[in-house]
Amino acid sequence: MTATTTTKIILGIDPGTVVMGYGIIKVQGQNVSLVDLGVLKPGKAKDGLKRLQLIHETVSGLVRQYKPTEFAIEAPFFGKNVQSMLQLGRAQGVAMAAALQFDLPVSEYAPKKVKQSVTGNGNATKEQVSRMLQTIFQIEDKPKQHDATDALAVAFCHHLQSGKNWMPPKSKTAKPTSTTRTKGKKNDWASFVAQHASRVRK
Fold first, then answer.
1. Which residues are catalytic?
2. Range of 50's domain?
3. Domain count of the chain?
């Protein structure tokens, strides 16, 4: 009898009242692939409550469209600006409430945890995280905003917490980006395999 392959769809959110990122990945057995990523710009609305409404509506819409089985979100970082932290906390809470409305299991990850999981360095820059994800998911066009790749990193981090081996998506026939063509950089796929050999099925 052939074993049934479990499929998971993970929605990752990088919360924010000015820009909110989202990333969605599909996990089928040991294969992990990118479904979608992008940003919402609630900051275009002048009213603070309207921004929260837009966040709730967007997350709800993503759940309805992609039907994720799990939800992951980045935890607010502790900063000196109390007002900014308050707004970020509200954005996170509204996004979580939208997921809970659909009975999705919610997981929260600190920024350093996400960076450590994806790059092996908890102090990695947003650019380093973005480049690593471009390589892993073979994203041909560099995302214009890091909020989108930050959200994708949250989703991927959540998957890695399962502790299961995984395989990168199959190579595309399309022309690779400069990130995947460049040799000798620390952020290419070969380097990732070397640093995270336990995660890659041989």
1. 14, 74, 147
2. 7-199
3. 1
Round to whole Å and give the CA distance between 71 and 153. Answer: 13
CATH number where 111 lies: 3.30.420.10
Name the phi and psi angles at 70, rounded to 5.
Answer: -145, 155
Helical H runs in 36-143? Answer: 48-66, 82-101, 111-119, 126-136
User: What is the token pair recorded at 40?
Assistant: 């919402």
Would 106 be classed as within a structural domain?
A: yes
- Can you give the pTM of this predicted structure? 0.79
Whose structure tokens read 């070397």? 194
How many CA atoms lie less than 13 Å away from 101 in the CB half-sphere?
A: 15
To the nearest 10°, report the CA torsion of 148, 151, 152, 157.
160
> Does residue 1 fall inside a structural domain?
no
85's tokens: 């932290």
Q: What is the pLDDT of residue 176?
A: 34
- Among 23-27, 69-73, 162-166, name the one with the lowest average pLDDT: 162-166
Residues 52-57 have a mean pLDDT of 95
**What is the distance of C-alpha 97 from the center of its chain?**
18
Q: What is the pLDDT of residue 167?
A: 63
Residue 2 covered by a domain: no
Q: How confident is the model at residue 83 (pLDDT cuts 50, 70, 90)?
A: confident
| 33 located within any domain | yes
